[in-house]
Amino acid sequence: MDVRIRLIRPADNAQICRVIRSVLEEYGGKKEGTAYYDYDTEHLFEAYQGEREVYFVVEVDGKVVGGGGVKHLAGTDENIAEFQKFYILPEYRGLGLGKRLISRCIGFAHKAGYDSIYLETFENMHAAQGLYRKYGFRYLNHPLGGTGHTSCPVWMLLSLKDGK
Q1: Which of 69, 78, 87, 156 is the 20 to 30 A CA-CA neighbour of 115?
Q2: Is residue 67 helix, strand or coil?
């Protein structure tokens, strides 16, 4: 199995959009207030071209099977990154791809100088939450910023500052 985690390219937009929507459907997330209907979901390459933002795709044997991105948390002036659109197709879970992807994203956020990383997810995404907790994410009792993802009731934060 040839696995690569690489920067998104324009030609990846349709494939990664299908991955994201497929996983969201799996977890009951085909509804307003989720990434399913975000404009960026169909235009991920274009959405991650700014400074201090990145989107990685996971490619297995030439097929895009997942991805995840980092950019400044919308709706705040604080130095917080948001972990965005982090999804892996079910048949590729349990192979360590999520761990490799989250490590790349955290590494990027750290290098980009963010103080912390925020994410939102669904209550029923237990395996994903377990992975996030292993990397030091902690639950919050309220959302941060203004993501527009009102249907995501689980909020987590990872401090990137030493000693916190």
Answers
A1: 87
A2: strand
> Would you place residue 164 in the very low, low, confident or very high pLDDT band (cuts 50, 70, 90)?
very low
Q: Which of 18, 110, 29, 113 is nearest to 57 (CA)?
A: 18
Q: What sign for the dihedral angle of Cα 162, 78, 110, 61?
A: positive
Mind listing the domains of the chain with CATH numbers?
3-159 (3.40.630.30)
Rounded to whole angstroms, the Cα distance separating 53 from 63 reads 23
Q: What angle do CA 33, 39, 10 make, to 5 degrees?
A: 140
C-alpha closest to that of 149 among 74, 93, 66, 67:
74
- Read off the pLDDT of residues 19-60 as tens digits, 9 standing for 90 and up: 999 999 999 889 888 888 888 999 999 999 999 999 999 999
Q: Which two tokens stand for residue 41?
A: 């979901």
Q: What is the DSSP letter of 11?
A: G
- Which residues are CB-neighbours of 141 under 8 A, at least 6 positions away? 155
